[in-house]
Design brief:
With 155 residues, the protein is mainly alpha-helical. The chain is elongated.
């Protein structure tokens, strides 16, 4: 599910490469991809550029182990070998190996999925996000107040 920088020709090549594997789907861009998480065994995001990784966080929230690239916020979200696998950019063999290990081992996949859900709840859930935003805003207000109270700084 998704779009990105992949050309139609490249996407067609990827589809052809896994044509005999019914468990792999290239669904393209969808405005609301949440329905795809229901049947998802593994979340795979081979991004070369990524800021935060909202889709990976959503997969973690659903208890899905993730296979991601070590770029941007993805490697902060996913803990390698605990909530999924973090692979180096360009290392297709490592990505394939990670996906095959998860497909072959139901226990490992379930354990990593549960670890993903726990990590999301402990670090990225809405109550945690609100708490962190409040802490940041209060810190900024404190800095602003301190600046204004310095001699020579206009109020």
């Amino acid at each position: 599910v998704g779009g990105g920088y992949m050309s139609d020709d490249h996407l067609d090549q990827c589809r052809a490469a896994v044509a005999d594997e019914p468990r792999i789907q290239f669904a393209g861009f969808h405005e609301n991809p949440a329905r795809f998480y229901v049947d998802c065994l593994i979340y795979f995001q081979p991004s070369r550029i990524e800021s935060y990784g909202l889709s990976a966080a959503e997969a973690m929230r659903k208890g899905i182990p993730c296979v991601v690239t070590r770029v941007g916020g993805l490697s902060e979200l996913v803990i390698d070998k605990e909530t999924g696998y973090v692979c180096e950019d360009g290392d297709a063999d490592a990505r394939v190996e990670a996906i095959l290990m998860l497909l072959a081992d139901d226990r490992r996949r379930a354990a990593m999925g549960e670890a993903s859900r726990r990590r999301f709840d402990l670090h990225f859930s809405l109550p945690i996000w609100r708490k962190e935003m409040r802490r940041i805003h209060e810190g900024l207000l404190e800095i602003t107040h301190d600046e204004r109270s310095r001699p020579g700084v206009p109020a």
